[in-house]
Amino acid sequence: MRVLVADDDFVNRKFLEKMFANYGEVVAVDNGMSAVDEAVRGMECREFFDLICLDIMMTKLDGYKTLEAIREAESRYAVFDNRAKVIMISALDEVVLDSIQVCNDYDAYICKPIVMDKFEKLLEKMGFAKTEK
Fold it and tell me: How does DSSP classify residue 76?
């Protein structure tokens, strides 16, 4: 599995990068613009991301706008069979997220601080399994 992580907080990005390493190849970037660039590069090379994990509040391009640009690129490249699953992450609590939700084009969201067991159960529910090492 290929995972793209975008989070502008170094500690969170490294935590997610390490956690997702148990699931496959991880590309981690520190802003939304870089996430869009990596996703498009993957589509151009036919090396699709299976999962994209986006922080909602990032510099340069927030998670919602990042996802909008990635979904637009998926339609431009006719990536319907290989459309990435998306998890949005945020320090905002779920009640606040529900009230400001501007995009329904993701599969799940989870609040920071990320609880490992809860996150792994979410990934399992989404159909992702750890790789055997």
Answer: H
